[in-house]
Specification:
Length: 414
């Protein structure tokens, strides 16, 4: 005879509630098929399923290569993967990884655990000047290279936490929203110039520093800043957005009227903004459209894609017209770097996915680029992970999410 077990009603309710919470744990699972701003295009020559499958396939390879767990119990980090140097992880990579993992939640059932581990690693490496900002790099022994931050990494990390709040809520072991708000406040205080509202290179830069009025062009992320404003209610972010759009318009008109390009680094923003000279910070190409500035089309185009800001479309529209003309609509002709006049860097006889992927995001802002977007998608998707490094592959991963229609923001659009 089978025995009937009577379960108290409160326990049944608890079990059902737990199942319901589990079912709803991932609120925006991949794929999302987001309706972008009117006029924004995605590839139309293949099916949604084919687009999504390409994202899934590359994510599997990217995750296996770059997400590592040997830094400590419960910690994950994005492997820097540079053949030279002593760095194992940089905050820039943590930001990329944290955004990617949240956006792939639902497909990747381990995404929240991995995201939390990435965040725990980030918290374990605070900058000297703020516990909320991350020390920009760790060496192979996981010791901080120095205690300064890198603004771009902190901005992406804060943004990813707002994504996490929208994806999973903030009632678990990590209050994603409050952690994000703390980081955003620290960014505003320590990584935003309080006079010009440009983005400082790091929180090591002070008002009396010689580079206080200098900026890395790719640190202007207007869509992120709008989300920050919405999450905090702080309208200072409007000043940051407006000031930098004005700065970028001036730079395009004065230094790259034909190509619409930007230098890696901008100097003297408080007086007469100019591209930096060679060897300002990283290389002889610091005043060119190089490995930092190559991210600008992606960062600015995203503001039109999700918010419809016409200033973004105007900025990247100039770049779109130039790159299509200079390559004769052939992605294989995209070079790894240009002068501001739009000429190839002659010493470069290779291509770089970070440049190509960013141009693909930029092309989405205008239906006149439909055939170009289709070509770029096919070209980008044809390369496997082994053909590029951490930087190129991580930017490609983000671009695949955006171009496939699977990028969303953690706040209502305006």
């Amino acid at each position: 005879m089978n025995k009937i077990i009577r379960v108290p009603f409160f326990l049944i309710s608890f079990i059902l509630a737990g199942e319901l919470l589990f079912a709803q744990a991932t609120l925006r699972p991949f794929p999302q098929h987001v309706k972008y701003n009117d006029g924004v295009i995605t590839p139309d020559h293949i099916s949604r399923k084919q687009l999504d499958d390409s994202v899934r396939s590359f994510y599997n390879s990217w995750k296996e290569r770059y997400i590592n767990d040997d830094a400590g119990e419960g910690q994950y980090y994005i492997w820097f993967e540079k053949p030279a140097g002593n760095k194992k992880c940089v905050s820039e990579g943590q930001g990329y990884g944290m955004m990617i993992v949240v956006l792939m939640a639902g497909y990747d059932t381990a995404s929240q655990r991995i995201f939390n581990g990435l965040f725990h690693y980030t918290k374990s490496h605070p900058s000297k000047n703020s516990p909320f900002l991350m020390a920009w790099a760790q060496a192979r022994n996981f010791k901080d290279v120095d205690g300064s931050s890198a603004s771009d990494g902190d901005i992406d990390i804060a943004y990813s936490l707002l994504l996490a709040d929208a994806q999973w809520g903030s009632k678990g072991s990590i209050n994603y929203r409050e952690e994000a708000r703390s980081i955003i406040s620290a960014i505003l205080q320590q990584e935003i110039n309080q006079k010009t509202f440009s983005v400082l290179l790091s929180n090591a830069v002070k008002p009396d520093s010689k580079d206080y009025f200098d900026m890395r062009s790719s640190d202007f992320m207007p869509a992120h800043f709008k989300v920050f404003r919405n999450a905090t209610g702080d309208k200072s972010w409007d000043k940051v957005i407006d000031a930098n759009y004005k700065l970028f318009s001036l730079l395009q008109n004065r230094y790259s009227a034909g190509a619409g390009l930007f230098p890696d680094f901008i100097r003297h923003i408080n007086s007469v903004p100019v591209p930096s000279g060679p060897h300002y910070l990283e290389s002889k190409y610091d005043g060119y459209y190089n490995y930092n500035a190559c991210r600008v089309p992606w960062r600015i185009a995203t503001d039109y894609i999700v918010y419809g800001d016409k200033r973004a479309k105007e900025v990247v529209g100039k770049i779109n017209n130039w790159i299509r003309e200079t390559t004769q609509n052939n992605p294989d002709n995209i070079s790894a770097g240009y002068t501001l006049a739009g000429d190839d860097i002659k010493s470069r006889n290779f291509e770089a996915m970070s440049f190509i992927a960013s141009f693909a995001v930029a092309a989405m802002v205008d239906s006149a680029n439909q055939a170009w977007v289709n070509k770029l998608w096919d070209y980008i998707a044809s390369f496997d992970l082994d053909q590029f490094d951490y930087y190129d592959n991580s930017i490609k991963m983000i671009a695949l999410l955006i171009v496939s229609g699977n990028y969303w923001i953690p706040a209502p659009t305006e």
